[in-house]
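As a warm-up, study this chain.
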Amino acid sequence: MGEKCLLSIIVPVYNTEEYLPDCIESIVKQTCKDIEIILVDDGSSDHSGEICDHYKKLDDRIKIVHQMNQGRVSARKNGLNTATGEYVIFIDSDDWIEKNMCEEMLMLAQRYQADLVTSGYVCEEAGRELRITDILAEGAYVSEDRRMELLMNSMIYKDTDSAGMTFPLWCKLYKREIALQVMELIPETLRRGEDYVFNNLYLLKCRAVYISKSIYYHYRNHSASTVNSPTPDFMEQIGIAQTALRKEFLKHDWKDVLIRNLNNRTFLHLLRLWNIEMQKESDIHMPVYCFDFGKLRGERVVLYGAGKVGTDYYLQFLKTYPSRLVLWVDKKYKEIRTEQYPVCDIECLTSADYDTILIAVESERTALEIKNELTETFGIQERKLSWQRPGHYWI
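Now compare it with the structure written out below.
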């Protein structure tokens, strides 16, 4: 292999000795061989740095960068500055990838002359798997109209609270030349939302994008992950992200829509992070989702679901028509139930007296699955089941 390669894979490494061997093994076994692997040890205090050095001895495609702990943004910047590939993929050191990821994504990039190729991922948490892909339609976004559609819906998809494109860096393929330009715009003080900022700035520079629904990446969501670590300065972090994006959006022809979407997305981030941080210290919860009471059949309502949507619906009941709520159920009621949130087992449905069950989930597909389960397992008549696409207080 010469000095340059087709694809560089950059892995920021920080205290992930338990998962790092699986990550590296999944990369060295890629069906695409014209790769270089850049492991950036960001001042790990465990054996992660030694593991990197061990694998370098086994595979001459591996390069090691050891640095003092400076954070993910710095590690990725140093990885990019070391890379020689025409394309680049980022992978987190506690995750792993399917063996055909590089080959398949490179094929799409070359076939459509794409500056960006996206893919989905599997979120692995506590033995459960959730498959996640972009909401935007699969295919090439090359023409002016298609690229505008992409930009208008990447942060806020058609006035929902969902993003049209997932924001993690690690399930995408980038042009290294563009990635270098964009990474220089990311403040190294940004420790939350750096992927979100990077991808939205990167899209501004893309001439062609391919949205793929294929899934190659396995994301481990565990308690030791830096994503799950406390962020006491979360409001400052939101401000840094907002400022970085706003500065570049104001230079764009479509700045008005971009700034509007940015403001909506920022407010939504603020609400969610506020709720995450404040629930550790107080009972204050800022609702995001709402529903239309006028569309509910009957006076007696069972609320099904105690996730983010269900919790907000419950608070809406308490403030508006508390007497109409006869029961609140969820399969994971043991994990959720507190004095403030009196969630019950779904088995309680068998003895409840109600007119309708309001299914509190965001996805229509998930709602349909719940409806099927309730009709088949509990014999509940479909006419008693209700789902509304959640409204949003923040729009």
